[in-house]
Amino acid sequence: MMKNDLNIFLNKKILIYGLGRSGLSAFNFLKNKSKVFLYDDFQIKNKKFISHKNILKIKFDYIIISPGIDINKCKLSKFLKKNLKKIYSDLDIFYAFYKNDCITITGTNGKSTTCKLLYEVLSEQKKDIRLVGNIGNPILSEKKIRPKTFFIVEASSYQLEYSRIFKSKYAAVLNISPDHIERHRTFKKYIAAKLKLINNQSKNSFAFIKQNDLVIKNELNKKRLNCKLIKVKIDKFQKIFAKIKNKYFLTEANRENLLFVLAISEKLQLNKNLMLKSIQKFTGLKYRQQIIYNKSNLLIINDSKSTSFSSSIGILKVYPNIFWLLGGIYKKGDKFDLPKKYCEKIKAFIFGKNKNFFNNKLKGKIKFENFNNLENALKKILFIARKQKSIKKTILFSPSAASFDSFKNFEDRGFYFNKLVKKFLNG
What we know:
Elements: E1 13-17, H1 21-30, E2 35-39, H2 52-55, E3 62-65, H3 77-82, E4 87-88, H4 90-97, E5 102-106, H5 111-124, E6 129-133, E7 150-154, H6 157-162, E8 170-173, H7 181-184, H8 187-199, E9 206-210, H9 214-220, E10 228-232, H10 238-243, H11 252-267, H12 272-280, E11 290-295, E12 298-302, H13 309-316, E13 322-326, H14 340-343, E14 346-351, H15 355-362, E15 367-371, H16 374-387, E16 393-397, H17 410-426
Parallel strand pairs: 1-2, 1-3, 3-4, 5-7, 5-8, 6-7, 8-9, 9-10, 12-16, 13-14, 13-16, 14-15
Antiparallel strand pairs: 11-12
Helix pairs in contact: 5-11, 5-12, 8-9, 16-17
């Protein structure tokens, strides 16, 4: 429902920087409400596009910056640093115009899965639900918003860092481990960006954190919070867990994601039978611990979404005789922290240019081989697997690294892996 009170983004001079999906949705939303100018590091054909030179001549009221823009490494770096107080995000625009309830999910790992599961649970309850942010449409591209329309927002640390006024009635920080240090510069700044979501909440709001997450607890203990803090713990939901037969929730990480969904569902007073129905049939998301083959003592899992060791650890604990495919652009400060008892059942097949980094992390813990590319690594695994016909084996594609060295994104990488599997198995 659109707010009619004084709105800071009405009848102003606004620069939108970054013309990806979120930037263009902000432009389409604001173009009839304010005087809007567009800029991107790569010039596009649009009457509203303004040159770098002309940007310096205009006194802007606000700058809406896309999450992908790094203030320290962009063409307008000096200009942005001089105008830090004018920088806002698309989440801020949404908050200025609407007063709908939001559940906003952030964290290092599990955001997309948790959001999608929540979306399916709430859809089953016949609610008008919108899935937006990193996982769905940009929040400003949603249409036909009614007073009872409910938003599930997946928010990244980049988006939260640039947000100033956005508040969410329900907020969850799933976990925090070192990530995106190349962008945030320090782990402390990365933590601050994530916890901004909770620190900005108002009275009558609810924040959900894992009971034993020391990083989050220690940081929040330093703050005086307006919201009610709910510490999510497994003991409370043991009876419901006992009823869940869905194998997707075998891994520790997915059980934790589920735990947050149960805690939020309880606060929303949802119908438990309908909720269980949604959970039982949940199949997860593409390229996130996705089982793509399961026959004749061979299980193949596509977990292309894994971009750090911490996102691979949970699934490495679950399956027997793992052939682990990993490689790509490693995360600065990333640590491999898997107990020895699990390491013995794993052999790693490392591919790509950054083999030395992964060799150093796995040395003395897991046996490994190096390959120039993913295709050669998978070929070798399948050669070994065919010789061990009587043993149950798991091929786990969980790269623990970003994909941009060879692929457009993790989806492109996941699609390529599926193509390779099809090619080799059919061959």
